[in-house]
Amino acid sequence: MTEPLSPDHDVLAAELALGVLDGAERAEALRLTLADPAFAAAVDAWRARLEPLGDDFAEAAPPDLWPAIEARLETRDVGAVRQLRFWRWGAIGSSALAASLAALLVFAPAPEPITVVKEVVRAPDQMAVAQLGGEAGASLAANYDPGQGTLRIRALEMPSSDLAPELWVIPADGVPRSLGLVSPQGTTSVAIPAKLRALIVDGATLAVTMEPVEGAPHAAPSSAPVAAGRISRI
């Protein structure tokens, strides 16, 4: 049974969904996304909850207010700084979202209310990750670097079989495209063909089926997936 997330990990998942992490914190959050299905699910849930909130806002240059606020903080406690940064990005949401966050988290008293213009940040080459699982007990983690066109997939657990795992991407049209065979143990680095890179997008599905080695990569899977998971951009 999956252990519930701690409050700190839930905050970290929300920060990763908002895109406010950098350095060691972002690296730790990405590691948890690949290693902890509950954490990855929390990131997906936060992203789904937050993404619609920016639809009705126009982009504008933000005022240089937050550095001044941080400089005036009486404490340099890391937790307080993290809370301030989280609320800075959370300010783009509605008051209903702020209420739901307050119900989940206990924050230090906030500074005097100020008006913050919404800031939109888009990374040109976002990493994509996926957690793959299934009823057969298979569990895999994948991350894709669009800059290199390379997908790394790590087999955490695979059923014993005389067949080989074959990786597929299933885009919105529902037609599986083979990305080739992967190792049932350890990590496999898969160079994605240029014609298939456009399919590795947010919301597409990665799946693994067990197939004969002969004839791979195959035109279509011959069996149901032993593991599958949705791709998420981070």
Automatic annotation (TrEMBL):
This is Anti-sigma K factor RskA C-terminal domain-containing protein. One of its GO terms (cellular component) is plasma membrane. Transmembrane segments: none annotated. GO terms for molecular function: sigma factor antagonist activity. InterPro entries: Anti-sigma-K/W_factor, RskA_C. Residues 216-228 have a biased composition (Low complexity). One of its GO terms (biological process) is regulation of translation. It comes from Sphingomonas koreensis. Signal peptide: none annotated. Residues 97-225 form the Anti-sigma K factor RskA C-terminal domain. Residues 215-234 are annotated as: Disordered.
